[in-house]
């Protein structure tokens, strides 16, 4: 028996509430598969801010990075 036929047969034997759960799970699997896969984080930027080490503390740099991201989002430089 094919897999899909087995699933249909077993699902049909379940109570209606559990059949809905099966349908929800199938939908979840379908959506998960259609989502683009996340790329692994690249670390080629490591050390890219070393010139700012003397100018900012780590906390100041975090604030500055947030400011830069906000400006980018607003289209400002």
From TrEMBL:
InterPro entries: DUF2281 (IPR018739). Residues 6-65 form the DUF2281 domain. Pfam families: DUF2281 (PF10047). This is DUF2281 domain-containing protein. It comes from candidate division WOR-3 bacterium.
């Amino acid at each position: 028996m094919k897999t899909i036929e087995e699933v249909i047969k077993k699902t049909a034997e379940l109570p209606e509430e559990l059949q809905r759960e099966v349908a929800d799970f199938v939908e979840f699997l379908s959506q998960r598969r259609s989502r683009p896969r996340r790329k692994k984080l690249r670390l080629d930027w490591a050390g890219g801010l070393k010139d700012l080490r003397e100018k900012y503390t780590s906390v100041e740099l975090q604030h500055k990075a947030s400011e830069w991201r906000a400006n980018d989002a607003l289209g400002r430089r």
